[in-house]
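Researcher: Structure prediction, please.
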Amino acid sequence: MRLRLRLIASIYFAFLSTAEALSIPKDYLGGVEVCAKNLDSRQNELGRWIKVPIDYSSLHRGTTDLYTWTKKPYDAQKKTVVFVSGGPGDTAHSSSLDLNEWNIIFFDQRGNSCSRPATKELYLDRSFYSSEKTARDIEEIRKAYAVDTISVYGVSYGTVPAHLYGHFFPQTTRAVALEGVVYEGGSRLIQPARRTKILQRFFDSLPEKNQNRILELSAHPEVAPTWFSSAGMMMLYLDNPLGSYLHFLNNILWNDDVAIGTLKSFEKSNSEEDVEYCFGHVMMGMIGCQELGMNLPGLSFYSVFQNRRLVSDGKNHFIDSYCRSLGFTDKEVTKLFKATEYPTQARTTYIQGTLDGATSADNAIDHFKNVARGFAQLVLVRDGGHMPLHGPLTSGYEQGVTVETRKEILNRVLLGETLSEEDLQKISNATSLRWVRRTGPRK
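Model: Predicted structure follows.
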């Protein structure tokens, strides 16, 4: 458990660090240079560069290099799936995702890591970035690998370009798998009411002395008042998150030195340095401030206690830490992503944890109801966290029957097949979580 929490914490703080400003180093390296510099960490990758248009609506602007790779030699006799990382800004270089029956193509999304453009000017050009461009980049990957049809598997933010691929290219889409689903940018993504309700119910379920201790720590001058919601959101990435949170609290609440020392880690950092490899802070800002609502005043990931109730602190730290640093003004109108603007006929499976703190379950339910126009199935994982299928498949922390059963489910999903009650009972037994499938009626 301790190792798992450490992994989740590293992901969480990479995505949600409350920095004062994003610092861009003067010395810029393009993706080809970044890839060469990090060769040791990519030894198991069979890399392939492809050229994609800088702007699909203005082809005269030329091309940029996109880095793709597989972990095994590409086999033209196998079916192919393109994996789309989340974030935005995450990469799959450390992923251990593997399916014997499939070629899995990974790629760094435009602007990130080995797919950074050749010039700093283009790197900081907001028009270079969009979820639609990434979806169209996936089509260029399909062409480069000479595949007639592909499946697309997106997790977290990656569900946006994965879904868009199915919308724009239904004829070359075998199936789309969306896990931890983004339905639209704005308050439903950044400040979902469901997450606050989950954490409030958890707080209310604790003994009164524990509640009072939590409130006492929240008022401590060395502790950020948002720590309870911040730690809770981190836990909600996990499966069975409330049990993990209870274990965490029981280990820190009654020792002042441990409590203060641990909770101080939830304070703001003084600065955020753009990094070359593995997490694309610039890409996160460019997509987030244009499409996801990161530059909307008043929206916040975090809550504070008022009269024992959790309420938003009303502070959008993304505005300072990303949007202003990248040239977005506070009053700039944002064209928020809305999945309903992109209905899809692609065979789509939604996989969603009911206690997901990053992309709350109502997003997947509404996406399923309002966006899918062809075959679609929604699998809700009771007490599941952010990525109940993908997480154990790629983390390396679980082995044996739970992993093999997840692989069987993912294989069926990527083929666009209907999951049976027997399939879901099998994975429910293997994972100690209840997996429930929904189909229609839908609009």
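Model: Confidence is low (pLDDT under 50) at residues 1-19.
Researcher: Thanks, that helps.
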